Amino acid sequence: MANTAKKTAKTSKTATKTNTKVVNIKTTAKERKAKTEKPDLKTLNKVLFTKVIFNTEKLTENAKTGLSYWKAIGDSIIEIRANWIAAGGDIKARGDASFKTYRETSPIGFMSKQDVSDAMLIAKNWSVVCKMDDTESLDAMGVSKCKKAISEAKKPAQQQGPATSNTSKKTETVSAQSIVDNALATAAKHNIKIADVLLTLKNTLEQQQKHKRPQAKK
Length: 218
Known about the structure:
Blueprint: H1 2-19, H2 29-36, H3 41-61, H4 67-86, H5 99-104, H6 113-124, H7 126-129, H8 143-154, H9 157-160, H10 165-172, H11 176-189, H12 194-217
Helix pairs in contact: 3-4, 4-6
């Protein structure tokens, strides 16, 4: 009986060890590489490069007019840049590691820096472009007109409209005393005597009165 009890105890200990055993899932080198591998930039951007080339050809045929073409180019370049960043590109990088170098050595390297900038500007501000108050079709417009509309839309509201009540209040706060104080400060800065300032003011007022009198008689 004692031997049987010992065997049972050993069996239970073995069972316990089996239940608590940690199972490690093995992965292949290929699977581990896939987890850390960055996106294939060439594959990601291949279709986008084709889109840009197609739309630049359309622009050339239409003497660079057609905002829908510009937007399509801008959207594609924005996506190309996003893929480049996702693949490890640093937007702050300069030289060979910059996006500028990547683009210039890519299939769309023929595009000028200005055209790239214009296309991205139009794409980013397409909502403004669509609100342009013009009877022409968007595809009949050039870039300059579009850029002007975007620039106007970005201006603060106070610069676009008439003077606001806040502007008027600022003007009304200018008092006679502040004008005198400024005049005295300016005189002191340039070593001009106060007596000379007062004399000049007196003569100026007299001259103005002489000019006003003939007009009053008429």
